[in-house]
């Protein structure tokens, strides 16, 4: 039997004592602990340096060469290590080197409950039986529900009143084609529903009462992040060994169970009265949740196992504590254009508009849609996670201390940070602003080469040589043990990400023979889209300059679309129609996309 090591992990919510096999890394051990989220953009390959932990105790492990390369001497002296490289010894205490809780955008805008909600709540008065009518209670109930006899499942039959009751009253809760709950008495007001947006980076859940009012929300970083920051990394992990797909499913199932538990507990909702959950996300996230084989998503010709999944009870995927909860996944369009874009199109109303619109979800997958009520065409570009802070020397998610905006005033560089905390790195909107500043100030040229002349440094910023070109260093000093830097490699990562997105837009315009001037509105989806400055996006070439004045932020458009389908069956029908009729443009192998990509690598200075 392998030796077992006992050690303690400290999280914001408390301590957990773990017993793990000797030789297992901290990252491997914490992947199964829902309260112990650790980012690992490189999926634990020792490349990104983001899975930082602090080790305390008598036998702190010596840093290996990878840690010496990715961590500063001050970090190492303070006990900072990488979870993917550290194999804990007994009696160690380990905590995350945590910048704080992420700011996750959950705003969806005002929603109006429909007259035809997805979940029906009927009060049925069942005619009593007598000697001339000895039909059983189930058959009489089936007649009242306009269903064929013998179709009510056993777990619902157990909730029926006594067959001898005089004119029993039953509350029936249902989805289209499914009975979710039967309960003796009038419980129409005791019915709650929820919607969730499973993003690659964040997961946001919303609680809705019987009147159709969104009463609360909860969000957290995607629990699958320890297996990689992007979809491709997770698809690769799902293909490895027998447990890859199961690990990813269990991670998101635990997270949904936790978020729903938080919402119901905080609002005094009995868990058994949560009846339906609509789910949106990209195609891979839907496959991981449902436990579908995702192999086809990562291999040509890029085929999903299913684009549409019928409603199913939550216990089929391992969600516990919600005995009557059914899950309704929004449909996907293709392997890389998922239910989140379907929900975004629905939220923007593009499928009903006469005017041509562009929808951009500026994230790891770079999904986008162009069109109107007559035609919708979509694509996805491998933008990578640079705009979410991954793979950058001082990149961060939307956490306290992340620089979210950069300005030049009277020759001096200023920036704002989330929660006004000391600057610790750059999140997506700050990265776009910073890149735009470098281009405006002439500190970067059209090829993306940073200036090497220290005398050209603006006030508050220094230019110094680095291992792979110039580095910009903020004179404010070191925060959280790290210098605030932006390197030549960082700018290349931004360059590649913006080129992929811009080339996707240019390809859609060319295929549909649409001029930029013909686009009426540009919808930006997601939290990043809510904070990005359109003028900065135009400066770096992420958007054509002619579109910067046409930008409208949708907030969390995917979540809004999921809520819309929950509040109206008509909207659910529209989502299905969008998924079945929108065109998906596969960019891999297209010569025109390659041409636009190469052109878009240059900055428009």
Could you explain how this protein is built, in words?
There is one protein chain. The protein is an alpha/beta fold and 605 residues long. The protein is 27% helix and 25% strand. The chain has 16 helices and 26 strands. The strands form six sheets. It has a six-stranded mixed beta sheet, sandwiched between helices. The protein has a six-stranded mixed beta sheet with strand order 25-24-15-16-17-26, sandwiched between helices. Strand 7 (169-175) and strand 8 form a beta hairpin. The longest helix has 24 residues, at 488-511.
Using brief descriptors, characterize the structure shown.
6-stranded mixed beta sheet, 605 residues, 25% strand
Please tell me the overall pLDDT.
86
- What is the overall number of helices? 16
Give the strand content.
15-25%
Distance between the termini: 64 Å
Oligomer: single chain
Q: If you consult CATH, what is the topology of the domain at 339-384 and 495-600?
A: Nucleotidyltransferase, domain 5
Q: What's the CATH architecture of the domain at 339-384 and 495-600? A: 2-Layer Sandwich
CATH class of the domain at 339-384 and 495-600: Alpha Beta
Q: Which range best describes the helical content: under 10%, 10-25%, 25-40%, 40-55%, 55-70% or over 70%?
A: 25-40%
Strand arrangement across the biggest beta sheet: 11-10-9-12-14-13
Low-confidence stretches: none
| Computed structural class | alpha/beta
Please count the beta strands (DSSP E, at least 2 residues each): 26
Radius of gyration: 26 Å
Shape label: globular
The biggest beta sheet reads:
6 strands, mixed
């Amino acid at each position: 039997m392998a030796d077992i090591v006992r050690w303690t992990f400290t999280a914001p919510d408390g301590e957990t004592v773990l017993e793990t096999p000797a030789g297992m890394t901290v990252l491997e051990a914490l992947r199964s602990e829902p309260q112990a989220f650790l980012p690992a953009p490189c999926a634990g390959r020792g490349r990104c340096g983001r899975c930082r932990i602090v080790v305390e105790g008598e036998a702190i492990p010596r840093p290996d060469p990878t840690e010496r390369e990715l961590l500063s001497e001050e970090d190492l002296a303070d006990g900072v290590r990488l979870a993917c490289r550290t194999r804990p010894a007994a009696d160690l205490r380990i905590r995350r080197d945590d910048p704080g809780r992420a700011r996750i955008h959950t705003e969806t805008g005002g929603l109006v409950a429909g007259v035809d909600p997805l979940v029906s709540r009927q009060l049925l008065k069942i005619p009593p039986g007598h000697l001339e009518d000895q039909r059983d209670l189930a058959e009489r109930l089936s007649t009242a529900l306009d269903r064929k006899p013998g179709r009510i499942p056993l777990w619902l039959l157990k909730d029926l009143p006594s067959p001898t009751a005089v004119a029993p009253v039953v509350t029936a809760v249902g989805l289209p084609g499914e009975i979710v709950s039967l309960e003796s008495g009038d419980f129409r007001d005791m019915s709650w529903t929820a919607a969730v947006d499973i993003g690659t980076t964040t997961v946001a859940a919303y609680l809705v009462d019987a009147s159709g009012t969104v009463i609360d929300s909860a969000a957290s970083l995607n629990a699958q992040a320890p297996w990689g920051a992007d979809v491709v990394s997770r698809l690769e992990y799902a293909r490895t060994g027998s447990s890859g797909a199961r690990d990813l499913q269990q991670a998101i199932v635990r997270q949904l169970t936790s978020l729903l538990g938080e919402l119901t507990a905080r609002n005094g909702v009995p868990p058994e009265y949560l009846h339906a959950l609509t789910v949106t996300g990209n195609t891979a996230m839907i496959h991981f949740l449902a436990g579908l084989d995702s192999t086809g998503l990562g291999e040509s010709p890029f085929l999903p196992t299913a684009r549409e999944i019928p409603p199913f009870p939550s216990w089929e995927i391992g969600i516990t504590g919600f005995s009557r909860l059914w899950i309704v996944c929004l449909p996907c369009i293709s392997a890389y254009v998922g239910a989140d874009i379907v929900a975004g199109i629905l939220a923007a109303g593009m499928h009903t508009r006469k005017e041509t619109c562009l929808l951009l979800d500026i994230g790891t997958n770079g999904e986008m849609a162009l069109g109107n009520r007559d035609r919708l065409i979509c694509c996805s570009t491998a933008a990578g996670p640079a705009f979410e802070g991954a793979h950058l020397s001082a990149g961060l998610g939307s956490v306290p201390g992340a620089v979210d905006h950069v300005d030049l005033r009277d020759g001096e560089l200023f920036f704002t940070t989330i929660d006004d905390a000391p600057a610790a790195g750059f999140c997506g909107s700050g990265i776009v602003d910073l890149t735009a500043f470098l281009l405006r100030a002439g500190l970067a040229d059209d090829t993306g080469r940073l200036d090497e002349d220290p005398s050209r440094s603006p006030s508050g910023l220094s230019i110094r040589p680095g291992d792979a070109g110039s580095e910009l260093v903020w004179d404010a000093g070191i925060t959280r043990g790290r210098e605030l830097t932006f390197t030549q490699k960082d700018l290349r990562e931004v360059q590649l990400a913006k080129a992929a997105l811009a080339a996707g837009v240019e390809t859609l315009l060319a295929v549909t023979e649409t001029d930029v001037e013909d686009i009426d509105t540009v919808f930006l989806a997601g939290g990043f889209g809510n904070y990005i400055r359109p003028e900065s996006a135009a400066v770096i070439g992420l958007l054509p300059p002619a579109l910067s004045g046409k930008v409208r932020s949708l907030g969390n458009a995917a979540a809004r679309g999921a809520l819309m389908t929950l509040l109206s069956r008509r909207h659910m029908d529209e989502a299905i129609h969008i998924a079945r009729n929108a065109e998906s443009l596969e960019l891999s192998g297209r010569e025109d996309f390659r041409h636009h990509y190469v052109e878009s690598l240059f900055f428009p200075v």
